[in-house]
Each structure stands twice: as C-alpha cells, then as structure tokens.
Amino acid sequence: MDRCAGQIKYLIAIKELLDTSETVRCVSISRHLGVSRPSVSKMLKCLAASGLVYEDFCNSVELTEKGKAAAAEIFGVFNEVYIFFRNFLKLPPEEAHSQAVTFITEFPLETCERLKAIVKRTMNKKK
C-alpha cells in the first residue's frame, strides 16, 4: 500500500458506504468520517488524480478498477486487524473499527501484514 493515511481512510469509508448503499455522495462520506464537505471534495480530487475514483464525483462517488483493487488490498489487512481489536482485545465494534483504521494508517505495511498473519494463525488454531 503506497497510499497516504488520508487516502486509506477515505477508501475505507467509500468501500463501507458502497457496501450499504448504491449511491455514495460527498455528504455521506462527510458524515461517515466526521469531516467537512470541502475536505471531502479536496480528498476526492486527490483520489481522482490518482485514478482511484472517477473524476465526475459531484453526484456520486464511484471507485475505478484501480480504486477497487486498492480498497480490496486495504481490506485484506483491515479485516484481520479489526478482528484483532474486536475479538482478541474485546473492544466494542466502533472502537475496534477506529483502532483498526488508525493502526493500518499509522503502522508500516510490514507490521500490518505480520499482525494479519498472527491473527490468521490463531484463528485457524481455534477451529
């Protein structure tokens, strides 16, 4: 993942919103992340310049194929890190989500991958 923390947070938000709704708008991203609409517009311009979302995001935000691949890569790590915070540390769902986002945006990818591997190994042993 060669994305900045902001891009990762926005890709997570867009993917989560797309999973629950057909249309994702700037205002829904703003509410989801607790940021201003101008901040959302600024980041969407950055994501569009990187080829992760389509440039015409005024009516709805859609991930490009590159954006879908980036989101899938992020969630490949995010889901295991979330499980760690939720199931191993017993944090409430919202706090586990917040901590997982912070973890994958602040720690190097190698560290995230190592935690992911530990969680997978441990979960497989429990089966």
In short:
By secondary structure, the protein is an all-alpha fold. Helices cover 73% and strands 0% of the residues.
Task: Give a topology summary.
Layout: H1 5-20, H2 26-33, H3 37-49, H4 65-88, H5 93-106, H6 109-126
Average pLDDT figure? 92
Our count of helices gives 6
Write down the overall geometry.
Answer: elongated
Radius of gyration: 15 Å
CATH class term of the largest domain: Mainly Alpha
CATH architecture name of the largest domain: Orthogonal Bundle
Distance between the termini: 30 Å
Low-confidence runs of at least 5 consecutive residues = none
List keywords for this structure.
single chain; 127 residues; mainly alpha; Arc Repressor Mutant, subunit A; elongated
Walk me through this protein's architecture.
The protein is an all-alpha fold and 127 residues long. It folds into two domains: 5-67, Orthogonal Bundle (Arc Repressor Mutant, subunit A), CATH 1.10.10.10; 70-126, no CATH class. 73% of the residues lie in helices and 0% in strands. It contains six helices and no strands. The chain has helices at residues 5-20, 26-33, 37-49, 65-88, 93-106, 109-126. The chain is elongated, with a radius of gyration of 15 Å. The mean pLDDT is 92.
